[in-house]
Design a protein that fits this description.
Number of strands: 8
Order of helices and strands: HEHEEEEHEEE
Structural class: alpha/beta
Radius of gyration: 18 Å
Oligomer: single chain
Largest sheet: 4 strands, mixed
Mean pLDDT: 88
Shape: globular
Length: about 140
């Protein structure tokens, strides 16, 4: 029923060349402190380094996606997000048992949890924390 409603809504939308987009290929986090962010994503989260294009652009491979850390100015001249403001939220999907394992590992690594693993009424088990630039990160599982 829900799928039928979604198809009907899509059929009512005007045709656009952007309808051909099927996935997000990569996500860029504009960083304030590249050294701290790199340590966090490589050492704490243990994301596999895909490549380093320069000291201002580092990429990690996550499944079929790429997560890049970049100093502002490489692709745009926007000012950095002020401290205390999250620029984005990333959600990483894992199994239900892994949510608790990640929480334990984050605490072991000295990362403050914003909330412990929690079963949500909408069917997710969630864990929230921040990276060194105050971006909101979530590890979740469908339950």
């Amino acid at each position: 029923m829900i799928m039928d409603e979604q198809r009907e809504q899509q059929n009512r939308r005007p045709h656009s060349p952007f309808n051909a987009i099927r996935a997000i290929d990569y996500t860029v986090i504009f960083v304030r402190d590249m050294a701290a962010m790199r340590r966090f994503y490589e050492d704490v989260l243990a994301f596999p380094l895909l490549r380093e294009l320069s000291p201002n652009w580092i990429e990690y491979g996550l499944g079929s996606n790429t997560l890049a850390l970049a100093k502002p100015g490489r692709t745009a001249t926007d000012a950095p997000i002020p401290h205390g403001s999250a620029a984005l939220q990333l959600a990483f999907k894992v199994s239900a048992a892994e949510v608790d394992q990640y929480a334990d590992e984050l605490v072991r690594q000295g990362v403050a949890l914003l909330s412990p693993p929690t079963n949500q009424s909408f069917g997710h088990r969630t864990l929230f924390f921040r990276d060194p630039d105050d971006n909101l990160l979530e590890v979740y599982a469908e339950i």
